[in-house]
Amino acid sequence: MKFHRTHIASAVSLSLLGLMIAPGGAWAADTAPAAGSQKAESSEAKGSEQKNNTLEQVVVTGIRASLEKSIKTKRDADTNIEVVTAEDIGKMPDKNIADSLSRLSGVNVTHGAAFAFDEAERVQIRGTPPKLNLVTINGHSLSSGDWYLSDQNATTRAVGFGMLPSQLIGQSIVYKNGRADITEGGIGGAVDVITRKPLDLRQQLTGEVSLGAVYSTLADKVDPQLSALLGWKNEDKTFGVLVQAFREDRSLRRDGVENFGVTTLLSQDTTNPAKCITVNGSQVCGNAELKGKRLPGNLASALFEGERKRHGGFLSAQFKPSNDLDMSFSVFQSSLDASNYNSNTFTFANNMLNGAGGTTANGAILSNYKIVGDVVTAATINPNPARLSANGGLGDIAVQSGHQVRSGAGSSAGFYDFDFKLRANDRLVFNGKVGHTEGTGETESSPGMLFRAFNKPITYQINGDQGLDWSVANVNLRDLTQGGWHLISDIQAVFKTKDQDTYLYLNGEYDTDAGILTKTKFGMRAGKHRNEKDQINGAWNFMTTGTGTPTQAQMDAQFPVSTFPMSNAGYYPADYGSGLNGNFPKDVLRLDRGTMLNVNSLINYDPVLNKNWAGSYIVNEKTEAFYLMQEFESGALSGNAGVRLVGTEVNSIFYQALPANRVCPALAVSCPPQVGTPVQNPIASSRLSGYMQQEVTTHHTDLLPSMNLRWDLDSRTIARASASRTMARPEYSELAGAISGLNNNVTPKSASGGNPNLEPTTSNNLDASLAWFANSRAYVQGSVFTQHMHNYVKRGTAFVNLKNPDTQEFEPYLVNSFQGRKAKLKGLELSGESPIGGGFGIVGNVTLVDGVDQDGAQIIGTSKWTYNLRGYYESGPWTATLAWNQRSAYPVSYFGNGTISDATATAARNGLNYADAQGSLAASISYRINDNMSVVLDGTNLLNPTYYYYSITPDMPLGWYKNGRQVFLNLRAKF
C-alpha cells in the first residue's frame, strides 16, 4: 500500500478541532480550570513529588479519564511537554512504549537497522536521530541491547523499546525543552518512563491479570500473551510491594523484494563502446551514455521468519515511615529471545560488472536497457564469456541462494536501584538515587548454507516505486543439484554486546521564598559507563590450520553437489510475495530450518580462536554533572533558569590487524621472520590475524544553560518560551571503529577507522508555544522551535593520534572516519483533543520539521511531515479507539560521503537513502463484563502496509517489505 501526503487534510482536521473547542463551540467548557494551578516539576532523579501526587489525585477508569490526566499534567507544567498516561492498561492497542509515544506531537519511531519489522524500536523527538535523544526510566539511564544481527553490529546509544512492554508505564513524559535538572544526553528532548510505586495504588491490595493470544496473519500463527500485577500496602500506608510479570510471544514473517547495493557505472566495460562480447551469436557493445548512471547491484527475493519472545518483570518495594522519609528499591529485567531464519535468492549484477584484484571491470555488457534520470531502470546484464577462467574456471558470480539461521539471537535490559527522599526541615528536601543498569545483545551462531551459480544472464525492470521484475537465465532456482550450483564458504560473524552504567544522583530542593524566587534546586550526577562489542567469526571444523577460510576447491571437495544437505528441503510459502508488486522469483527453494541448525555441528564459533579483534572494541566513559536551577513566580509569570556543568572522560579501545611478519596469528601454517620494532603487547590468540591495541582517552566539558518561562495569559490560555543548550554523545562505533588501510608511505599518513576525538554534539534551542484549555478534556496548542547543532556526527576525515606499528609511537594520521558538522532544525507543531459528544472524542496533531546539515544533506531520520489522528468512543461497558499515524519520507543513511552531489566522470553520485512515506492504522475495542473483568480486541498494522526504501531517488529501490497484521485478544481481570 502506498501512502500519499495528506498535509492539508491534517491541517483542516486540527483547525476543525480548534473550532470545536473554541468559545461558544459545540464542546466549549462550561467552566474553566482555576488559574495558577500547581505546576508540574521535574528533578534529576525521577521527576518530582508532584508527579506522584498527580497519580494519587486522579482516578483513571476509562479513556476520557486517562486523557484528562495527561492534559492536566501537560497544563500544569512550566515547560513544553507531552504526556502518555496508562494507569488503566488497554486504552490503546500499543504493545510497547514506543508505540504509545508515537501518538504524541513531535515524536516519531523507527524500526532499527532491519528497517521494516512490525514493532517500533527507536524514538525520535522533533526530527533528531534516535541516537541524539535521551531515554530514562524513573529519571535514570537505561541500558538495553538489540536482537537483530545488524543492530548488534552497529551498537547505538538509542534505547531499544522492544524491551519495554506497554504495561510498564505509569506515566511517560516527553520533555521538549532543556532544563538544568534533567539528565544530559538528549538534543531534541528526553523521554522519562515513570513506573508505578506500591504506595501510589488506590487499594490496599491490587491485582491485574491479562491472559490472551496474538494472531500474526502473515506468519499464520497464534502465540500466548500473559501479564500480571500484584500490589500490596499496609493499612498505615507506610510500606508496600508491587510485582509485575509479563510473557509476550509473537511470530514474525516478513516478505521482501530487496536490492542490497547500488552500482555506479564509471569505468566498467559496459560504458566503453570499444568493449564488445558475443551474446547468442550477436555482438553486444558498451555505450558511453551509461557512464555515471546507477543500477541495482543485488536484487533479491527475501523471506524472514522468526520469533519474538519477550519476558521479564518489575519489582518495587517502598517504605515511607513518615512524611519526611520515603525510600524505594526497584528491580527490572526484560529479555527477548528472537532466533530467526533468513533466506535470500539474489543476483550478483555488481560482481559481473565490477572488477576485483586491481582490475577495473569484469566485462559484463548491458543490453536492452532503459534510463530514467540517472537510473538504469531496465537491462539485461550479459556475463563476459572470457571470465570463465575466474574463480577456478567457474566465472563471475551471477546468483546466490542463501539460507542463514541466527540461533540464540536475543537481547536484554534491566536495572536495579535504590532511591530516597528526605525532608530535612520545612524548607529543605533531599532526594537521591544509586543503581546499576545493564543491557546485552547477542547472536550465538549463524550457520548458513550459501550456494552460487556463475556466468548467467540477469534481466530486470524497475517499475518506479511500485515494484520490480527480475530473473536469471539458465539456472534452476528450485533444485540446487542442477545448473552448476556450488556451496561457498560464507559463514556470518556473530556479535556479543554489553552496555552497562553505574550511576549516583544526589539532589536538593530549597524553598527560597524570597520575593519572586520560589524554589532553588541543585544536585549532581556521577556515572561510570562501559560499552563493549565482541565479533566472533565462524569457521568450518575441517579447517584445522590457517585462518579457517577454505578455498572454493576445498569447499567443492568437502561438499560435492551430490551431498548437498537437501533433506526436507522445501520452497517459499505459496502466498510468498502476494502483497508485493512485480514479477520476481517466488517459487524458489528454501532449506529446512532443522537441516540448517544441523550445520552447527560442522562449524564452530570459538570465542578465542575466532575472535575478530578488528570488529571489537570497548568504550569507557566517566561522567560528572552539577546543576543549579532557580524557580520563580511573579503573578501570571513563572518559570525556571539554571545551568548544568557536564564533564566527560572517554576511553576508546580498538584494534588493528597486522601482517604475520609483525604478529603471527594462532594456527598459522608458518610464521615469517618478524620485521620492524616489536609490537607492544601483541594479540596473537586469534587464528584470523595478529592485532595491536589502539587506545585514546579524551576529556570534554560542556556548559548547558537553560531558561523556561510560563505566562498565564488568562484562566485558559498559557504561553511558554524556552531557551536552552543541550548535548548528546557520539555513538560507540563512531568513537572506536577498527583501524584499517593504514598507510605510512604518504604525507600525511592515512588510515580508515573511528574517531575517538569526536566531541559531544551540542545544540542551542529556542521554543515557543501557546495553549488554550477549553476544559479538563479539551485543548489546542501550537509550538514553533529551532535547534542549531554543533558537532553533528557524519562521515568525513579527521586527524587522530594513532600508534604507528613501525615505530610503536603515537603519530598523527588523517583518518577516513567521522567528523563533527553544523546542522539546524526548525519546525512547528499543532495539537489538540476534545470530546465531541455521545461518548465520542478526537485527538490529533501535526508536526512540520525542516532539518539540514552544512553539507546540504537532510538530517538522518527527519520527516518533513508527521501527523496522528485518533478517534475514541466510550459509553457504558464499551470502549473503542481507532488511531492513524503517518510520516513523510525520511533519510535512513548516507549514500557516498555524506554530501549532496551528482556523479562525475570519475566519482559516483552522493546523497541519501530514504524510507518512503509510512502510515499505520491500529484499533482497540473492549467490553467490560463487570467491574472486575473485561475482554479486549486489539489490532495493529491493520492495513498491512508496504514499506518502501530507496536510494537518492524513488527510481532506485532498496526494498519493499510486508509484515502482515497482528490481532490480539485478551481477557483482563482486576481487583
UniProtKB/TrEMBL annotation:
Belongs to the TonB-dependent receptor family. Residues 74-189 form the TonB-dependent receptor plug domain. Residues 33-53 are annotated as: Disordered. Residues 1-28 form the signal peptide. Residues 460-942 form the TonB-dependent receptor-like beta-barrel domain. It comes from the Bacteria. Its main location: membrane. This is TonB-dependent receptor. Keywords: Cell outer membrane, Membrane, Receptor, Signal, TonB box. The keyword Signal applies. It is found in: Cell outer membrane. The lineage of its organism: Bacteria, Pseudomonadati, Pseudomonadota, Betaproteobacteria, Burkholderiales.
